[in-house]
Amino acid sequence: MSGSSGDASHRAGGGRWAVVKMFLYQSGGEVRCGDHIRFHGEPGLVELVIAEKVGNDAVDWYLTEYPGGGLMLNASNFGNVFLREKDIDEKLVFVSRNVESVSGPE
Q: Which residue range is the domain that position 30 belongs to?
């Protein structure tokens, strides 16, 4: 079974609502940059969550090559790994949230 994504609504300027895609662990929690994870049992860290263009050519390239975005993680014995939404499965496990990346209630 693959992971899923959700859409978070945020109020944009002018009273409109903007929909921002987010990626979810199989446990249902949101994948966030800085999360400590296990990937195939190896410890790692989520380095980037790429859901929309950010004006950085190196990051935005992933959206061009992989519409729908994904996430970049770094795991022991794997190095950097890019996962598309359909690749998020039971092999990616949330361990803990990096305190500095917490921006509000979960």
A: 4-99
